[in-house]
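Instructor's aside before we start: the two examples that follow are unrelated to each other. I chose them only because their records fit on one page, so don't look for a connection. First example below.
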Amino acid sequence: MNAYQPIELAGATLWLLAEKAIYWPAQQALLVADIHFGKAAAYRRLGQPVPHGTTDANLRQLDGLLARYCCRQLIFLGDFLHAPESHAPATLARLAEWRSRHPQLAITLVRGNHDLRAGDPPAQLGIDVVNEPLLLGPYALQHEPQPHPSHHVLAGHVHPAFP
């Protein structure tokens, strides 16, 4: 059984991954939305008890995807950081350590609503930050799932779940 579901959209093949990501083989691109790094740190700063280890768990999952699929680029479809408090030293140190293991990987962040409030990731992470839409091939890569006049939209933001 495959860990992905291939689909054809606008003349391109995309793989919908069980890990809530999309792999675009022709571009060797992994698309991830709404990772919200630093969310737990932001909640803890507000005095709310939340578990530790969410950043590490997300980074391990990214490492697994990058090892499994031939990726030369990673594109975040918004909400890389959760809030201004996400710039906590421990969170940023973990992100920097992770990034140092993937120096050749091109990383792009299409700003989402949380990114506008949280601010851009630190420059030393080497992430190209752009406003939506990022037009790539037949797709408009966006955070907000709004129609685009000439491209098929691939977006995050909605956080779908199954009860």
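Example two begins here.
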Amino acid sequence: MSSRTILVLFIAVLALVALSSSVFFVDERQKALLLRLGQIERSDFEPGIHFKIPFVNEVRRFEAREMALDAQPARYLTGEKKNVIVDSFIMWRIADVATYYTSMGGDEERAAIRLSQIIKDNLRGEFGRRTIQEVVSGDRQVIVKDILKDANRVAERFGIAISNVRIKRIDLPSEVSASVFSRMEAERERVAKELRSQGAEEAEKIRSDADRQRAVILAEARRQAEELRGEGDARATQIYADAFGQDQKFYSLYRRLTAYQNIFKGDDMLVIEPKGDFFNRFGDPTLTEQ
């Protein structure tokens, strides 16, 4: 192989290397930063193929998608000076790659540490303005909204946008939990006693009203019974009177026989002298009633 051929091959290889070094590709899931001798030259690359000057320009690529940062559980003081343990995570992304590179040096771990501190500061401020009850049973969306507003104001200086902050759990330390549970138990016991007292009072009212209604109903029933009994007695007396008026002898005989039936019952023996008006039929059956 001649020296001329070797030179041509060398130049071709050099050109190929230079061409490959001058072309770079930006994925749609990435943000690219073009550096010239360590200084930022361009940061607004669209996805696709781009060119750079070999050995002069350097391309740095960063994640363009949202990233999750699971923060370590930390203790915060509430407005009542009580400790709560909060477990949270952060969703964030690189908003301005040039600012991000300048402030964080393109180090994702450094950015995560800074973000954790920002969120902790805001959580500390939000929890410090609220009581334990407001923190545990309140609307967490309001807390998150306030945190996002303040945290993004700080994170913007680092080219970072925080899209979401989620509070996974809010726990109480064991010593606080015991006192809280004791207060909750005492409160529930107070409510239960109050409800039982109200129930007993209402039951007494119902019983009193039922007794009153019972007395009224019985009195009314007795009154009606007496009226009906009086009407029945009057009707019976009228019937007896009418019957006596139709046949006085028969009626007198019927009354006497009824009296005999009521007196002489069973196997009783009555030893008396049959004298007097009551026994006049025993002596002479032909006697007429007076």
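The helical segments are 3-22, 97-104, 108-128, 132-137, 140-155, 174-246, 248-263, 280-283.
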